Predict the 3D structure of the following.
Amino acid sequence: MAPESRIRLPFCRCLLTLVLLLAVSVTLSVGEEAEYANGAEIIVWMDKVGPYNNPHETYPYTKLGLCEVGDDRESNKGDLSIGEELEGHDFVENPFLEIKFGKNLAESPTCNMVLTKEKAALLKRAIKDNYWYEMYIDDLPLWAFVGQPGSGAEALLEGSGVSHRPETIYTKREFVIQKNGGQVISVDVVPGNPMPVVEGTLLQFTYSVEWQDTDKAYSARFDKYLETNFFEHKVHWFSIVNSFMLCLFLIAVVTIILMKTLRRDFTKYTMTEQEELENIDRAADDSGWKQVHGDVFRRPPHLMQLSVLVSTGVHIAATVACVLVLAITNTYYRQRGTTRASAVLMYVLTTMLAGYAGGRLYRQFGGKTWKKAMVYQVLFLPAVLCLMFMIVNTTAWIKGLTYAMPFKTILLLLMVFLAVCVPLHMIGTLWGRRSAAERSFPCRVHHLKRPIPIQHRFFIPGLILGAGLVPFGCVFIEMYFVFSSLWSYNKIYYVYGFMLAILGLLTMVLVCVSITCVYLLLNNEDYRWQWMSFLCSSSIGIYIALYSIYYYHHSTHMSGISQWLYYVCTNTFICLGMTLFCGTVGYLGACKFVFAIYRNIKSD
């Protein structure tokens, strides 16, 4: 039985298992609709606070030192899921805000405090930096600014003096809550009653609650948070059309030009002996991709490194695909931490596919130290993540930011990696080695290497850089929307269908670009196609990195070392992930192409 036939059944079983796991995950992720009796108490959770221009520099709400959270702060803290911890939430109950379902409340006091010199200075700095805070009522988020910055020095109308308006803090919250039956549909908060932040000032915090009836369904209560005018703008639709047209153009180019050329080559390379004698003069001058058939399947240099990169790329591709399928069939934005929690889950479940890809590639090209390769494959991406995590988390611990990971969560993730990921990767590696016959190539590899013709020194670098520019043109508009969601104030990305469509088109573009580059390389009698196919496709990461630098300087107003480190580490991982994903897609597409064309020629 052929190797492809032997692996078809196990591979299909693996895909079926993943589909079932996805279905179970979707079922479990559907939250229950909360129902309240009239007069039932609704807990108000204070979450985090931070500067408006630094969306990820967030601190616990208790950092403001206000009296609202009470003295026993630790007992008022809420339990967090792993996804909420990864997103940097820090819930603490506000015991002074007593909201009862359906019961209006006139302005009522919560607590009083006198501003000391230290607290006044802290609040002034926060208000000058436009600090906003986040709170939750029935799992619905609310945002408001802490206060209003001062006006600075301003000349009086008479011109005879200088006035200065100090920073003010909002001491009143007006809650407007809409309900439908026994369900909370909408929550809003309007801050008011600004008081000057001056040492010795008595701050009297108050709040009021107004309930309103609405006909809006419970399922639509998150629609107000989705910026449809931004994410579903005609420019976003244009990006889909642009990518689709680019994809069609490249497919047409590859189909018409390459297939026309290959058909002529196949005709020439499959001549009968009589035809070869009749065309012997032309055959003497023959050149092209057929001439390297004895070297094209030669073991590539740095095989172990290539297997590590391809294995990691398959892992990233499988994880992203599963997360996007879950995102389309579910509504991630309705539940805090769901996106990151599902990413962790899918990463764990798809580890076997990464082991399969790396083990199969390494054995196919005759790698001997497969155990060493397996260790590198399973550790490469976690090692990179740990390095970036140590940088970001250490900074977060020092500054007391909310996304500083608790030690128990770090220990839990480490245990999951050692107890689940490593065994699954080992099983996948053994599966891949078993399914791949060593050196099972269409053409026999010659013992002596064929000399590679001298090429222009800019041919390969130019080909690599030019190849990356084409797929970047397919995704750069989508990158703007993704970056806006990541690095802007409360923009929730929810159009995962757009992203899945773009990635599907990107995959086809990468395959076409990789096939074209490999064909040009082989036609120049250079048989080093494995790394070339990977590098040509992965060079898109260069352009994504350049775009992230441009975005930082032209589309954000971030400042401070902690936010800068978070931005750099996050975007570095995005660039690395896209590099490995695109490089792997290009390599696999080129591999299929090379095997196909050399399977159909008559070699000596």
User: Anything to note?
Assistant: The first strand starts at residue 41 and ends at 42.
